[in-house]
Design goal:
By secondary structure, this protein is an alpha/beta fold. Helices cover 28% and strands 18% of the residues. The chain contains seven helices and twelve strands. The strands form two sheets. Strands 1-2-3-7-8-9-10-11-12 form a nine-stranded mixed β-sheet. A three-stranded antiparallel β-sheet has the order 4-6-5, with no helix packed on it. Helix 6 links the parallel strand 9 and strand 10. It is globular, with a radius of gyration of 27 Å.
Length: 302
């Protein structure tokens, strides 16, 4: 065979080899073809009732749409009633009720929802309350100094997530079992108060994100209560804000990050006249009203 014929034969053999290899690796035969980018592995569950302290999950969307997990997210501008004391008045024509986890019965929650209301569950997560049925479950080691003006309440050592997680999970389960749509975790700014513990801003961010994640694991929306100094950092983890007296303390602008993200700000004032704060908070698109500090049924909405 001449050198020229030999070169042609070798070139043909190489071409056949390439074509055969391409056919063997076509997309139709590849079991991974069409999968695209693999999904992030699910965060493992742990702790009380299968609900755990894995890395906090941020809200999957900033648009205000329902998350993949299915928890409720209230819209900006939703009207609301906040009542934590007295016989529950279910006749207020609002979109959302915020009521106590323990003193509100499942039947009352069901009546509110049958009337088209969404219902938020008030839960104290950052302070021990000696009047609650589960008060004895909180060891003395996590109880700090008392909250000024609130007899029977003591700040909790929020660094002790190993101890607090199952206790808070049990409380959130009560909310879920009663049919609530979301939770309002209270006293999530211990680091800025005389708690009796050397809490840092980072401790508070970690705790608050864990609380939000725990609520979401129960299929509940969750609101950031006060803690306005950390609102920008925490907004992605929460579905709405609940604020007391931002007009009185000239802090309302700090909460605009929630509105910008399509999340409502449920706001109350106790001492300022509505004529003074309503023009500003209405312009900010807050859901504002004046309430008595004991949070009975009385309200004066903007």
């Amino acid at each position: 065979m001449t050198d020229r014929r030999l070169r042609f034969a070798l070139c043909g053999l190489v071409l056949l080899t390439v074509l055969y290899a391409a056919a063997c690796t076509s997309p139709g035969d590849d079991p991974d073809a069409g999968r695209g980018t693999p999904r992030t592995a699910a965060v493992p569950l742990s702790g009380f009732g299968g609900l755990g302290s894995a890395s906090p999950a941020l809200s999957p969307s900033r648009s205000g749409a329902p998350s993949q997990a299915g928890w409720w997210r209230p819209p900006v501008g939703a009207t609301w009633q906040w009542q934590l004391t007295g016989a529950l008045d279910t006749s207020v024509a609002v979109d959302v009720y915020d009521v106590d986890a323990v003193t509100t019965s499942a039947a009352e929650v069901a009546r509110l929802k049958a009337a088209g209301r969404r219902v938020i569950c008030y839960v104290n997560v950052g302070a021990h309350e000696d009047f609650r049925a589960d008060a004895g479950n909180f060891p003395e080691s996590v109880r700090g100094k008392g909250l000024e003006g609130w007899p029977g309440e003591k700040w909790l050592d929020i660094r002790r997530w190993d101890t607090l997680e199952p206790l808070l999970a049990a409380r959130f389960k009560v909310c879920k079992d009663k049919g609530f749509d979301a939770v309002e975790p209270d006293n999530v700014d211990g680091y800025a108060n005389n708690s009796g513990f050397p809490l840092t801003a980072e401790d508070q961010l970690t705790f608050n994100r864990r609380v939000a994640d725990l609520a979401h694991r129960h299929g509940l929306g969750v609101g950031l209560k006060n803690d306005v100094e950390q609102a920008r950092a925490l907004e992605p983890a929460f579905d709405f804000a609940v604020n007391e007296e931002c007009a009185h303390y000239d802090e309302c602008d700090t909460l605009k990050v929630f509105i910008a993200a399509g999340k409502p700000v449920f706001h109350v004032e106790y001492d300022v006249d509505p004529a003074k704060f309503c023009p500003k908070t209405t312009a900010l698109r807050f859901s504002s009203m004046k309430k008595k500090q004991d949070l009975d049924a009385w309200r004066a909405p903007c």
